[in-house]
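Dig into what follows:
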Amino acid sequence: MSIRNALLLALAAAVIATALILGALEVDSIQRSVLREAQARVDHGLRSLARYYEQRLAASANLLAAAARAARIDPTTSDNDLDRLRRELGLTLLNLCDLAGRPLSGSHDPEAGAVPVTHDPVLRRALGGETAWGTVRLDAARLTLEGGSALATALAVSGQNGEANATTDALFWWLATPVRDPGGRVVAVLYGGRALNYDYALVDELRDFAFDASTYEGKPTATVTIFLRGVRVATNVLGPDRRRAVGTTVAAAIERQVLEGGRPWSGRAWVVDSWYLSGYLPLRDPEGETVGLLFSGLLEAPFTDLRRQLVFRSGLTASFLILLSLGLAALLVRRITRPLGALGQAAHRIAQGELGESVAIRTTFSETHDLVDAFHRMQGGLAERDRRLREQNAELATTNARLAETNTNYMEMLGFVTHELKSPTAAVQMLINGLVEVHGEKLPPALSQPLVRIQRNCEEMQDMIRDYLDLSRAERGEFELHVERIDLLHDVVEPSVTMTRALFTSREIALGVDVPAGIALDADPELLRSLVGNFLSNAAKYGTAKGRATLEARITGAAIEISVWNEGPGFTPEEAGRLFEKFARIRNADTRDKRGSGLGLWFCRRIAELHGGTVRAESEPGAWARFTLSLPRPLPAGDETLPA
Protein backbone atom coordinates (compact mmCIF):
# COMPACT_ATOMS: atom_id res chain seq x y z
CA MET A 1 0.00 0.00 0.00
CA SER A 2 1.29 3.42 -0.90
CA ILE A 3 1.97 6.13 1.65
CA ARG A 4 -0.74 8.26 0.01
CA ASN A 5 -3.45 5.59 0.40
CA ALA A 6 -2.41 4.74 3.96
CA LEU A 7 -2.58 8.37 5.03
CA LEU A 8 -5.98 8.83 3.34
CA LEU A 9 -7.48 5.77 5.04
CA ALA A 10 -6.15 6.76 8.46
CA LEU A 11 -7.40 10.34 8.23
CA ALA A 12 -10.79 9.27 6.84
CA ALA A 13 -11.27 6.75 9.65
CA ALA A 14 -10.37 9.33 12.30
CA VAL A 15 -12.67 12.01 10.84
CA ILE A 16 -15.66 9.68 10.39
CA ALA A 17 -15.30 8.09 13.84
CA THR A 18 -15.04 11.49 15.53
CA ALA A 19 -18.04 12.83 13.61
CA LEU A 20 -20.17 9.80 14.44
CA ILE A 21 -19.36 9.98 18.15
CA LEU A 22 -20.02 13.71 18.39
CA GLY A 23 -23.17 13.36 16.28
CA ALA A 24 -24.54 10.60 18.51
CA LEU A 25 -23.87 12.68 21.62
CA GLU A 26 -25.55 15.73 20.06
CA VAL A 27 -28.63 13.73 18.95
CA ASP A 28 -29.02 12.26 22.43
CA SER A 29 -28.67 15.72 23.99
CA ILE A 30 -31.30 17.17 21.62
CA GLN A 31 -33.78 14.40 22.34
CA ARG A 32 -33.40 14.67 26.09
CA SER A 33 -33.45 18.47 26.31
CA VAL A 34 -36.50 18.99 24.06
CA LEU A 35 -38.75 16.57 25.96
CA ARG A 36 -37.39 17.58 29.37
CA GLU A 37 -38.10 21.27 28.76
CA ALA A 38 -41.57 20.48 27.39
CA GLN A 39 -42.47 18.33 30.41
CA ALA A 40 -41.19 21.04 32.77
CA ARG A 41 -43.48 23.52 31.01
CA VAL A 42 -46.44 21.15 31.51
CA ASP A 43 -45.70 20.68 35.22
CA HIS A 44 -45.31 24.41 35.82
CA GLY A 45 -48.50 25.14 33.88
CA LEU A 46 -50.46 22.55 35.88
CA ARG A 47 -49.39 24.08 39.19
CA SER A 48 -50.42 27.51 37.93
CA LEU A 49 -53.73 26.07 36.74
CA ALA A 50 -54.48 24.58 40.16
CA ARG A 51 -53.88 27.91 41.90
CA TYR A 52 -55.92 29.81 39.33
CA TYR A 53 -58.75 27.24 39.58
CA GLU A 54 -58.99 27.69 43.36
CA GLN A 55 -58.79 31.49 43.09
CA ARG A 56 -61.60 31.58 40.53
CA LEU A 57 -63.74 29.30 42.72
CA ALA A 58 -63.17 31.48 45.81
CA ALA A 59 -63.86 34.63 43.80
CA SER A 60 -67.18 33.16 42.60
CA ALA A 61 -68.22 32.49 46.19
CA ASN A 62 -67.32 36.02 47.26
CA LEU A 63 -69.23 37.43 44.31
CA LEU A 64 -72.28 35.41 45.37
CA ALA A 65 -72.08 36.77 48.92
CA ALA A 66 -71.66 40.34 47.70
CA ALA A 67 -74.49 39.99 45.19
CA ALA A 68 -76.79 38.55 47.85
CA ARG A 69 -76.20 41.56 50.06
CA ALA A 70 -76.57 43.98 47.18
CA ALA A 71 -79.83 42.38 46.02
CA ARG A 72 -81.10 42.14 49.65
CA ILE A 73 -81.96 38.48 49.38
CA ASP A 74 -84.37 37.32 52.10
CA PRO A 75 -86.74 34.33 52.58
CA THR A 76 -89.43 36.14 50.52
CA THR A 77 -87.26 36.59 47.39
CA SER A 78 -89.15 35.45 44.30
CA ASP A 79 -88.11 32.82 41.75
CA ASN A 80 -87.75 35.49 39.06
CA ASP A 81 -85.43 37.64 41.17
CA LEU A 82 -83.34 34.61 42.04
CA ASP A 83 -83.15 33.53 38.41
CA ARG A 84 -82.04 37.01 37.35
CA LEU A 85 -79.29 36.95 39.97
CA ARG A 86 -78.25 33.47 38.80
CA ARG A 87 -77.84 34.66 35.22
CA GLU A 88 -75.88 37.74 36.31
CA LEU A 89 -73.45 35.54 38.23
CA GLY A 90 -73.17 33.00 35.39
CA LEU A 91 -74.33 30.09 37.56
CA THR A 92 -76.14 26.91 36.54
CA LEU A 93 -78.17 26.70 39.77
CA LEU A 94 -79.19 29.24 42.41
CA ASN A 95 -81.65 28.21 45.12
CA LEU A 96 -82.83 29.44 48.51
CA CYS A 97 -83.82 27.20 51.42
CA ASP A 98 -84.52 27.63 55.12
CA LEU A 99 -82.41 26.20 57.93
CA ALA A 100 -84.21 22.87 57.77
CA GLY A 101 -83.60 22.53 54.02
CA ARG A 102 -87.15 23.39 52.95
CA PRO A 103 -87.04 25.11 49.52
CA LEU A 104 -88.05 28.78 49.52
CA SER A 105 -87.37 29.81 45.92
CA GLY A 106 -85.29 28.85 42.93
CA SER A 107 -85.37 25.88 40.58
CA HIS A 108 -86.12 23.10 43.12
CA ASP A 109 -88.22 20.17 41.99
CA PRO A 110 -91.44 20.74 43.99
CA GLU A 111 -91.91 16.99 44.49
CA ALA A 112 -88.35 16.14 45.49
CA GLY A 113 -88.52 17.08 49.19
CA ALA A 114 -86.09 18.92 51.42
CA VAL A 115 -82.47 19.80 50.66
CA PRO A 116 -80.00 17.65 52.67
CA VAL A 117 -78.30 20.64 54.29
CA THR A 118 -76.72 18.63 57.13
CA HIS A 119 -75.06 16.21 54.68
CA ASP A 120 -73.76 18.93 52.39
CA PRO A 121 -70.42 20.30 53.75
CA VAL A 122 -70.74 23.59 51.86
CA LEU A 123 -74.33 24.25 53.01
CA ARG A 124 -73.42 23.13 56.51
CA ARG A 125 -70.75 25.84 56.78
CA ALA A 126 -73.22 28.42 55.46
CA LEU A 127 -75.67 27.43 58.23
CA GLY A 128 -72.90 28.39 60.64
CA GLY A 129 -72.75 31.89 59.16
CA GLU A 130 -69.83 31.53 56.73
CA THR A 131 -69.62 31.94 52.97
CA ALA A 132 -68.46 28.54 51.77
CA TRP A 133 -67.37 26.93 48.52
CA GLY A 134 -65.82 23.81 47.05
CA THR A 135 -65.75 21.39 44.13
CA VAL A 136 -68.43 18.73 44.69
CA ARG A 137 -70.02 15.81 42.87
CA LEU A 138 -73.84 15.77 42.67
CA ASP A 139 -75.59 12.55 41.74
CA ALA A 140 -78.64 12.36 39.48
CA ALA A 141 -81.08 12.39 42.41
CA ARG A 142 -79.54 15.55 43.87
CA LEU A 143 -79.52 17.19 40.42
CA THR A 144 -83.21 16.39 40.01
CA LEU A 145 -83.96 17.81 43.47
CA GLU A 146 -82.10 21.04 42.77
CA GLY A 147 -83.05 21.68 39.13
CA GLY A 148 -85.50 19.08 37.90
CA SER A 149 -85.10 16.08 35.64
CA ALA A 150 -84.27 18.28 32.64
CA LEU A 151 -81.10 19.49 34.38
CA ALA A 152 -80.07 15.94 35.29
CA THR A 153 -80.58 14.85 31.67
CA ALA A 154 -78.70 17.84 30.24
CA LEU A 155 -75.64 17.25 32.43
CA ALA A 156 -75.42 13.49 31.84
CA VAL A 157 -72.22 12.65 29.94
CA SER A 158 -72.50 10.05 27.19
CA GLY A 159 -69.82 7.43 26.58
CA GLN A 160 -67.69 7.08 23.48
CA ASN A 161 -69.30 6.51 20.06
CA GLY A 162 -72.81 7.09 21.37
CA GLU A 163 -72.58 4.36 24.05
CA ALA A 164 -74.57 4.54 27.28
CA ASN A 165 -73.92 7.36 29.72
CA ALA A 166 -70.39 7.38 31.07
CA THR A 167 -71.80 9.16 34.14
CA THR A 168 -75.10 10.66 35.26
CA ASP A 169 -73.37 12.63 38.04
CA ALA A 170 -72.17 16.21 37.62
CA LEU A 171 -69.15 18.11 38.93
CA PHE A 172 -69.97 21.57 40.32
CA TRP A 173 -68.36 24.65 41.72
CA TRP A 174 -70.64 24.64 44.78
CA LEU A 175 -71.19 27.95 46.61
CA ALA A 176 -73.28 28.95 49.62
CA THR A 177 -73.75 32.09 51.71
CA PRO A 178 -75.95 32.72 54.76
CA VAL A 179 -79.00 35.01 54.57
CA ARG A 180 -79.55 37.02 57.74
CA ASP A 181 -82.51 38.91 59.15
CA PRO A 182 -82.18 42.56 60.29
CA GLY A 183 -81.04 41.29 63.70
CA GLY A 184 -78.11 39.42 62.15
CA ARG A 185 -79.50 35.89 62.68
CA VAL A 186 -79.07 33.33 59.91
CA VAL A 187 -82.58 32.59 58.61
CA ALA A 188 -81.87 30.97 55.23
CA VAL A 189 -79.12 29.77 52.91
CA LEU A 190 -78.55 31.03 49.36
CA TYR A 191 -76.64 28.40 47.44
CA GLY A 192 -75.94 27.11 43.96
CA GLY A 193 -73.13 26.52 41.58
CA ARG A 194 -71.61 26.33 38.16
CA ALA A 195 -71.80 22.96 36.41
CA LEU A 196 -68.39 21.83 35.16
CA ASN A 197 -69.89 19.18 32.90
CA TYR A 198 -69.60 20.56 29.35
CA ASP A 199 -68.10 23.84 30.69
CA TYR A 200 -65.91 24.41 27.65
CA ALA A 201 -65.53 28.11 28.44
CA LEU A 202 -63.81 27.29 31.74
CA VAL A 203 -61.34 24.75 30.34
CA ASP A 204 -60.53 27.11 27.47
CA GLU A 205 -59.97 29.92 29.99
CA LEU A 206 -57.69 27.68 32.07
CA ARG A 207 -55.74 26.62 28.97
CA ASP A 208 -55.31 30.21 27.78
CA PHE A 209 -54.22 31.26 31.28
CA ALA A 210 -51.40 28.71 31.55
CA PHE A 211 -50.52 28.14 27.89
CA ASP A 212 -52.03 29.48 24.66
CA ALA A 213 -54.65 28.56 22.07
CA SER A 214 -52.27 27.58 19.26
CA THR A 215 -52.99 24.48 17.15
CA TYR A 216 -50.90 21.85 15.40
CA GLU A 217 -52.33 19.98 12.41
CA GLY A 218 -55.84 20.92 13.46
CA LYS A 219 -55.49 19.94 17.14
CA PRO A 220 -54.82 22.25 20.11
CA THR A 221 -51.17 22.23 21.13
CA ALA A 222 -52.04 22.76 24.80
CA THR A 223 -55.04 21.11 26.45
CA VAL A 224 -56.81 21.20 29.82
CA THR A 225 -59.37 18.66 31.06
CA ILE A 226 -61.63 18.41 34.10
CA PHE A 227 -62.48 14.82 35.05
CA LEU A 228 -65.41 13.62 37.16
CA ARG A 229 -63.69 10.67 38.73
CA GLY A 230 -62.14 9.04 35.63
CA VAL A 231 -64.52 10.51 33.00
CA ARG A 232 -63.80 13.65 30.96
CA VAL A 233 -66.67 16.08 31.55
CA ALA A 234 -65.03 19.25 30.16
CA THR A 235 -62.02 19.32 27.86
CA ASN A 236 -60.40 20.90 24.83
CA VAL A 237 -58.77 17.59 23.86
CA LEU A 238 -60.08 16.70 20.40
CA GLY A 239 -60.85 13.16 19.30
CA PRO A 240 -60.34 11.66 15.81
CA ASP A 241 -63.57 13.38 14.67
CA ARG A 242 -62.12 16.76 15.79
CA ARG A 243 -64.78 17.05 18.48
CA ARG A 244 -64.13 17.53 22.17
CA ALA A 245 -63.49 14.14 23.70
CA VAL A 246 -66.10 14.44 26.49
CA GLY A 247 -67.12 11.03 27.84
CA THR A 248 -63.73 9.38 27.33
CA THR A 249 -61.88 7.96 30.33
CA VAL A 250 -58.46 8.25 31.92
CA ALA A 251 -55.91 5.43 31.73
CA ALA A 252 -56.16 2.80 34.46
CA ALA A 253 -52.63 3.41 35.80
CA ILE A 254 -53.27 7.13 36.16
CA GLU A 255 -56.66 6.48 37.78
CA ARG A 256 -55.02 4.23 40.39
CA GLN A 257 -52.30 6.73 41.26
CA VAL A 258 -54.28 9.98 41.24
CA LEU A 259 -57.87 9.00 42.08
CA GLU A 260 -57.18 6.13 44.44
CA GLY A 261 -53.75 7.14 45.74
CA GLY A 262 -54.32 10.91 45.70
CA ARG A 263 -50.85 11.53 44.23
CA PRO A 264 -50.07 13.75 41.22
CA TRP A 265 -49.00 12.08 37.97
CA SER A 266 -46.57 13.51 35.43
CA GLY A 267 -45.16 12.09 32.22
CA ARG A 268 -45.89 10.88 28.72
CA ALA A 269 -49.44 9.55 28.30
CA TRP A 270 -51.72 8.33 25.52
CA VAL A 271 -54.72 10.70 25.57
CA VAL A 272 -57.72 9.65 23.40
CA ASP A 273 -55.79 9.22 20.14
CA SER A 274 -52.43 10.98 20.57
CA TRP A 275 -49.39 11.08 22.83
CA TYR A 276 -49.25 14.03 25.24
CA LEU A 277 -46.71 15.29 27.74
CA SER A 278 -49.14 15.27 30.64
CA GLY A 279 -49.77 16.18 34.23
CA TYR A 280 -52.67 15.19 36.50
CA LEU A 281 -53.71 16.56 39.91
CA PRO A 282 -56.54 15.27 42.14
CA LEU A 283 -59.64 17.48 42.65
CA ARG A 284 -60.94 17.12 46.21
CA ASP A 285 -64.26 18.16 47.72
CA PRO A 286 -64.44 20.11 51.02
CA GLU A 287 -64.34 16.83 52.98
CA GLY A 288 -61.11 15.73 51.29
CA GLU A 289 -62.58 13.06 49.02
CA THR A 290 -61.08 12.91 45.51
CA VAL A 291 -64.00 13.62 43.18
CA GLY A 292 -62.09 14.25 39.96
CA LEU A 293 -58.88 15.19 38.20
CA LEU A 294 -57.37 18.34 36.73
CA PHE A 295 -55.29 17.58 33.64
CA SER A 296 -53.00 19.67 31.47
CA GLY A 297 -50.95 18.43 28.55
CA LEU A 298 -48.95 19.46 25.54
CA LEU A 299 -49.31 17.57 22.27
CA GLU A 300 -46.10 15.57 21.81
CA ALA A 301 -46.15 15.71 17.99
CA PRO A 302 -44.80 19.30 17.66
CA PHE A 303 -41.88 18.49 19.95
CA THR A 304 -41.22 15.22 18.12
CA ASP A 305 -41.14 17.08 14.81
CA LEU A 306 -38.91 19.76 16.30
CA ARG A 307 -36.55 17.09 17.60
CA ARG A 308 -36.54 15.40 14.19
CA GLN A 309 -35.74 18.69 12.45
CA LEU A 310 -32.89 19.44 14.86
CA VAL A 311 -31.44 15.95 14.37
CA PHE A 312 -31.74 16.28 10.59
CA ARG A 313 -29.98 19.65 10.62
CA SER A 314 -27.29 18.27 12.88
CA GLY A 315 -26.82 15.35 10.47
CA LEU A 316 -26.50 17.69 7.50
CA THR A 317 -23.91 19.77 9.34
CA ALA A 318 -21.94 16.66 10.34
CA SER A 319 -22.04 15.28 6.76
CA PHE A 320 -20.82 18.56 5.36
CA LEU A 321 -17.97 18.69 7.88
CA ILE A 322 -17.00 15.08 7.09
CA LEU A 323 -16.85 15.78 3.36
CA LEU A 324 -14.94 18.98 3.92
CA SER A 325 -12.48 17.24 6.25
CA LEU A 326 -11.94 14.38 3.81
CA GLY A 327 -11.31 16.85 1.00
CA LEU A 328 -8.77 18.73 3.08
CA ALA A 329 -7.10 15.45 4.08
CA ALA A 330 -6.82 14.35 0.45
CA LEU A 331 -5.28 17.69 -0.47
CA LEU A 332 -2.80 17.47 2.37
CA VAL A 333 -1.74 13.91 1.47
CA ARG A 334 -1.33 14.87 -2.16
CA ARG A 335 0.91 17.78 -1.21
CA ILE A 336 3.00 15.49 1.00
CA THR A 337 3.44 12.69 -1.54
CA ARG A 338 3.78 14.63 -4.80
CA PRO A 339 7.35 15.90 -4.10
CA LEU A 340 8.41 12.34 -3.25
CA GLY A 341 6.82 11.07 -6.45
CA ALA A 342 8.56 13.75 -8.47
CA LEU A 343 11.86 12.81 -6.87
CA GLY A 344 11.20 9.15 -7.63
CA GLN A 345 10.38 9.93 -11.27
CA ALA A 346 13.57 11.97 -11.57
CA ALA A 347 15.56 9.10 -10.11
CA HIS A 348 13.85 6.68 -12.50
CA ARG A 349 14.70 8.87 -15.48
CA ILE A 350 18.31 9.03 -14.36
CA ALA A 351 18.26 5.24 -13.95
CA GLN A 352 16.97 4.98 -17.54
CA GLY A 353 19.95 6.99 -18.74
CA GLU A 354 18.06 10.18 -19.59
CA LEU A 355 20.94 12.47 -18.91
CA GLY A 356 19.44 15.51 -20.56
CA GLU A 357 17.88 16.54 -17.26
CA SER A 358 20.50 17.30 -14.70
CA VAL A 359 19.75 15.90 -11.28
CA ALA A 360 22.44 16.64 -8.75
CA ILE A 361 22.53 14.17 -5.89
CA ARG A 362 25.04 14.82 -3.26
CA THR A 363 25.87 12.92 -0.15
CA THR A 364 24.55 15.87 1.82
CA PHE A 365 21.17 15.29 0.22
CA SER A 366 20.88 18.94 -0.64
CA GLU A 367 18.22 18.33 -3.36
CA THR A 368 16.06 16.28 -0.98
CA HIS A 369 16.59 18.90 1.71
CA ASP A 370 15.54 21.66 -0.71
CA LEU A 371 12.47 19.65 -1.73
CA VAL A 372 11.50 18.97 1.88
CA ASP A 373 12.25 22.58 2.80
CA ALA A 374 10.06 23.81 -0.08
CA PHE A 375 7.33 21.44 1.04
CA HIS A 376 7.67 22.70 4.60
CA ARG A 377 7.35 26.28 3.41
CA MET A 378 4.28 25.31 1.40
CA GLN A 379 2.90 23.41 4.36
CA GLY A 380 3.69 26.33 6.64
CA GLY A 381 1.88 28.68 4.30
CA LEU A 382 -1.10 26.36 4.18
CA ALA A 383 -1.03 26.01 7.96
CA GLU A 384 -0.93 29.79 8.39
CA ARG A 385 -3.85 30.29 6.04
CA ASP A 386 -5.72 27.47 7.75
CA ARG A 387 -5.06 29.08 11.13
CA ARG A 388 -6.39 32.42 9.92
CA LEU A 389 -9.45 30.73 8.46
CA ARG A 390 -10.04 28.89 11.72
CA GLU A 391 -9.73 32.11 13.70
CA GLN A 392 -12.11 33.87 11.34
CA ASN A 393 -14.52 30.93 11.49
CA ALA A 394 -14.26 30.91 15.26
CA GLU A 395 -15.04 34.64 15.37
CA LEU A 396 -17.98 34.12 13.01
CA ALA A 397 -19.19 31.17 15.09
CA THR A 398 -18.90 33.25 18.28
CA THR A 399 -20.79 36.12 16.66
CA ASN A 400 -23.48 33.78 15.35
CA ALA A 401 -23.77 32.11 18.75
CA ARG A 402 -24.15 35.49 20.44
CA LEU A 403 -26.78 36.53 17.92
CA ALA A 404 -28.63 33.23 18.37
CA GLU A 405 -28.38 33.55 22.16
CA THR A 406 -29.62 37.15 22.01
CA ASN A 407 -32.58 36.14 19.86
CA THR A 408 -33.35 33.14 22.09
CA ASN A 409 -33.11 35.28 25.22
CA TYR A 410 -35.42 37.85 23.64
CA MET A 411 -38.05 35.28 22.75
CA GLU A 412 -37.79 33.60 26.15
CA MET A 413 -37.94 36.96 27.95
CA LEU A 414 -40.95 38.01 25.88
CA GLY A 415 -42.77 34.79 26.69
CA PHE A 416 -41.70 34.91 30.35
CA VAL A 417 -42.64 38.57 30.85
CA THR A 418 -45.99 38.10 29.10
CA HIS A 419 -46.79 35.01 31.17
CA GLU A 420 -45.52 36.51 34.42
CA LEU A 421 -47.45 39.76 33.84
CA LYS A 422 -50.62 37.89 32.98
CA SER A 423 -50.76 35.71 36.09
CA PRO A 424 -50.03 38.29 38.85
CA THR A 425 -52.15 40.94 37.15
CA ALA A 426 -55.07 38.52 37.04
CA ALA A 427 -54.47 37.61 40.69
CA VAL A 428 -54.29 41.27 41.78
CA GLN A 429 -57.39 42.01 39.73
CA MET A 430 -59.37 39.20 41.34
CA LEU A 431 -58.21 40.22 44.83
CA ILE A 432 -59.12 43.89 44.31
CA ASN A 433 -62.46 42.90 42.72
CA GLY A 434 -63.22 40.81 45.77
CA LEU A 435 -62.22 43.58 48.17
CA VAL A 436 -64.29 46.20 46.34
CA GLU A 437 -67.34 43.98 45.93
CA VAL A 438 -67.25 42.51 49.44
CA HIS A 439 -65.94 45.42 51.53
CA GLY A 440 -66.33 48.42 49.22
CA GLU A 441 -69.28 49.92 51.06
CA LYS A 442 -67.55 49.51 54.44
CA LEU A 443 -64.29 51.23 53.50
CA PRO A 444 -63.67 54.98 53.89
CA PRO A 445 -63.27 56.97 50.65
CA ALA A 446 -59.56 57.46 51.30
CA LEU A 447 -59.13 53.67 50.93
CA SER A 448 -61.99 52.68 48.64
CA GLN A 449 -61.14 55.23 45.93
CA PRO A 450 -57.52 54.00 45.47
CA LEU A 451 -58.87 50.42 45.38
CA VAL A 452 -61.27 51.37 42.61
CA ARG A 453 -58.43 53.05 40.69
CA ILE A 454 -56.26 49.95 41.12
CA GLN A 455 -59.18 47.82 39.95
CA ARG A 456 -59.55 49.92 36.82
CA ASN A 457 -55.79 49.93 36.19
CA CYS A 458 -55.73 46.12 36.44
CA GLU A 459 -58.48 45.88 33.85
CA GLU A 460 -56.57 48.22 31.55
CA MET A 461 -53.34 46.24 32.04
CA GLN A 462 -55.18 43.00 31.24
CA ASP A 463 -56.54 44.62 28.07
CA MET A 464 -53.04 45.73 27.03
CA ILE A 465 -51.54 42.27 27.74
CA ARG A 466 -54.26 40.61 25.67
CA ASP A 467 -53.77 43.20 22.91
CA TYR A 468 -50.03 42.59 22.63
CA LEU A 469 -50.50 38.80 22.73
CA ASP A 470 -53.12 39.11 19.97
CA LEU A 471 -50.80 41.41 18.00
CA SER A 472 -48.08 38.74 18.18
CA ARG A 473 -50.53 36.10 16.99
CA ALA A 474 -51.71 38.34 14.15
CA GLU A 475 -48.20 39.21 13.00
CA ARG A 476 -47.30 35.48 12.91
CA GLY A 477 -50.45 34.71 10.95
CA GLU A 478 -51.98 32.61 13.75
CA PHE A 479 -55.42 34.17 13.62
CA GLU A 480 -57.48 31.17 12.47
CA LEU A 481 -61.25 30.87 12.36
CA HIS A 482 -62.97 27.94 14.07
CA VAL A 483 -66.50 28.52 12.86
CA GLU A 484 -69.48 26.77 14.43
CA ARG A 485 -73.19 27.43 14.85
CA ILE A 486 -73.55 29.42 18.07
CA ASP A 487 -76.23 31.20 20.07
CA LEU A 488 -75.36 34.91 20.26
CA LEU A 489 -76.77 35.54 23.74
CA HIS A 490 -75.51 32.39 25.43
CA ASP A 491 -72.14 31.90 23.71
CA VAL A 492 -71.01 35.52 23.20
CA VAL A 493 -72.98 38.20 25.03
CA GLU A 494 -73.27 36.65 28.49
CA PRO A 495 -69.55 35.65 28.77
CA SER A 496 -68.45 39.07 27.46
CA VAL A 497 -70.65 40.94 29.95
CA THR A 498 -69.35 38.76 32.79
CA MET A 499 -65.73 39.44 31.80
CA THR A 500 -66.18 43.24 31.80
CA ARG A 501 -68.69 43.62 34.64
CA ALA A 502 -66.03 44.70 37.15
CA LEU A 503 -64.85 47.58 34.93
CA PHE A 504 -68.38 48.99 34.64
CA THR A 505 -68.87 48.55 38.38
CA SER A 506 -65.63 50.37 39.19
CA ARG A 507 -66.86 53.44 37.27
CA GLU A 508 -70.49 53.07 38.42
CA ILE A 509 -71.74 52.83 34.83
CA ALA A 510 -75.15 51.18 34.43
CA LEU A 511 -74.89 48.56 31.69
CA GLY A 512 -78.10 47.48 29.96
CA VAL A 513 -78.32 44.39 27.73
CA ASP A 514 -80.99 44.18 25.03
CA VAL A 515 -80.21 40.99 23.09
CA PRO A 516 -83.08 38.69 22.08
CA ALA A 517 -82.68 35.01 22.87
CA GLY A 518 -82.33 32.54 20.02
CA ILE A 519 -80.27 34.57 17.51
CA ALA A 520 -78.06 32.01 15.75
CA LEU A 521 -75.04 32.66 13.59
CA ASP A 522 -72.01 30.90 12.14
CA ALA A 523 -68.91 32.33 13.81
CA ASP A 524 -65.83 31.66 15.93
CA PRO A 525 -67.18 32.14 19.50
CA GLU A 526 -63.79 32.91 21.05
CA LEU A 527 -62.93 35.66 18.54
CA LEU A 528 -66.46 37.08 18.72
CA ARG A 529 -66.26 37.23 22.53
CA SER A 530 -62.94 39.08 22.18
CA LEU A 531 -64.55 41.63 19.82
CA VAL A 532 -67.63 42.26 21.97
CA GLY A 533 -65.39 42.42 25.06
CA ASN A 534 -63.31 45.13 23.38
CA PHE A 535 -66.45 47.15 22.58
CA LEU A 536 -67.63 46.81 26.20
CA SER A 537 -64.19 47.66 27.66
CA ASN A 538 -64.05 50.84 25.56
CA ALA A 539 -67.54 51.81 26.70
CA ALA A 540 -66.55 51.35 30.34
CA LYS A 541 -63.19 53.08 29.91
CA TYR A 542 -64.26 56.11 27.88
CA GLY A 543 -67.89 56.39 29.01
CA THR A 544 -69.09 58.97 31.51
CA ALA A 545 -68.64 57.83 35.11
CA LYS A 546 -72.03 57.03 36.73
CA GLY A 547 -73.53 57.18 33.24
CA ARG A 548 -75.26 54.60 31.07
CA ALA A 549 -74.17 52.04 28.48
CA THR A 550 -76.19 49.59 26.37
CA LEU A 551 -75.35 46.37 24.52
CA GLU A 552 -77.90 45.62 21.76
CA ALA A 553 -78.32 43.10 18.95
CA ARG A 554 -80.83 42.98 16.13
CA ILE A 555 -81.45 41.33 12.78
CA THR A 556 -81.55 43.74 9.84
CA GLY A 557 -82.28 42.08 6.51
CA ALA A 558 -79.43 39.68 5.70
CA ALA A 559 -77.21 40.83 8.57
CA ILE A 560 -76.95 40.58 12.35
CA GLU A 561 -75.86 43.82 14.03
CA ILE A 562 -74.30 43.98 17.50
CA SER A 563 -73.72 47.44 18.93
CA VAL A 564 -72.44 48.98 22.18
CA TRP A 565 -73.62 52.52 23.03
CA ASN A 566 -72.40 54.68 25.92
CA GLU A 567 -72.77 58.16 27.25
CA GLY A 568 -69.54 60.06 27.00
CA PRO A 569 -67.44 62.66 25.18
CA GLY A 570 -67.51 60.67 21.93
CA PHE A 571 -65.39 61.69 18.95
CA THR A 572 -65.49 63.70 15.74
CA PRO A 573 -66.19 62.20 12.29
CA GLU A 574 -62.54 62.75 11.38
CA GLU A 575 -61.42 60.81 14.45
CA ALA A 576 -63.94 58.02 13.69
CA GLY A 577 -62.16 57.32 10.39
CA ARG A 578 -58.90 56.52 12.23
CA LEU A 579 -60.21 54.55 15.20
CA PHE A 580 -59.86 51.11 13.56
CA GLU A 581 -56.23 51.64 12.51
CA LYS A 582 -53.36 49.94 14.32
CA PHE A 583 -52.11 51.90 17.37
CA ALA A 584 -54.69 54.62 16.73
CA ARG A 585 -55.86 56.56 19.80
CA ILE A 586 -57.79 59.79 20.26
CA ARG A 587 -55.68 62.40 22.07
CA ASN A 588 -57.65 65.08 23.87
CA ALA A 589 -58.41 66.35 27.37
CA ASP A 590 -61.02 63.61 27.95
CA THR A 591 -58.67 60.72 27.07
CA ARG A 592 -55.38 62.04 28.46
CA ASP A 593 -55.58 59.88 31.60
CA LYS A 594 -56.78 56.74 29.76
CA ARG A 595 -54.22 54.02 29.09
CA GLY A 596 -54.42 51.69 26.13
CA SER A 597 -52.43 50.01 23.39
CA GLY A 598 -54.43 51.41 20.48
CA LEU A 599 -54.84 47.85 19.21
CA GLY A 600 -58.27 46.79 20.47
CA LEU A 601 -60.39 48.30 17.69
CA TRP A 602 -57.86 47.20 15.08
CA PHE A 603 -58.35 43.62 16.31
CA CYS A 604 -62.11 44.15 16.11
CA ARG A 605 -61.80 45.13 12.46
CA ARG A 606 -59.58 42.09 11.73
CA ILE A 607 -62.04 39.73 13.46
CA ALA A 608 -64.99 41.27 11.58
CA GLU A 609 -63.19 40.90 8.23
CA LEU A 610 -62.31 37.26 9.00
CA HIS A 611 -66.06 36.65 9.45
CA GLY A 612 -66.98 38.52 6.26
CA GLY A 613 -68.44 41.40 8.28
CA THR A 614 -67.75 45.07 8.99
CA VAL A 615 -67.36 47.43 11.95
CA ARG A 616 -68.24 51.11 12.19
CA ALA A 617 -68.10 53.91 14.75
CA GLU A 618 -70.69 56.66 15.29
CA SER A 619 -70.81 59.50 17.75
CA GLU A 620 -72.41 62.76 18.76
CA PRO A 621 -69.41 64.64 20.20
CA GLY A 622 -69.95 65.49 23.83
CA ALA A 623 -72.99 63.22 24.18
CA TRP A 624 -72.57 59.59 23.12
CA ALA A 625 -70.61 57.03 21.09
CA ARG A 626 -71.64 53.76 19.42
CA PHE A 627 -69.58 50.92 17.93
CA THR A 628 -71.37 48.42 15.69
CA LEU A 629 -70.45 45.01 14.27
CA SER A 630 -72.40 43.77 11.22
CA LEU A 631 -72.20 40.03 10.37
CA PRO A 632 -73.91 38.00 7.64
CA ARG A 633 -76.73 35.74 8.78
CA PRO A 634 -76.46 31.92 8.44
CA LEU A 635 -77.33 30.34 5.09
CA PRO A 636 -81.04 29.48 4.75
CA ALA A 637 -80.25 25.76 4.41
CA GLY A 638 -80.11 25.50 8.23
CA ASP A 639 -82.29 26.76 11.06
CA GLU A 640 -81.86 30.52 11.50
CA THR A 641 -82.40 30.44 15.25
CA LEU A 642 -81.30 28.30 18.14
CA PRO A 643 -83.68 27.32 20.92
CA ALA A 644 -83.69 29.84 23.76
In short: The radius of gyration is 36 Å. The first strand starts at residue 93 and ends at 98.
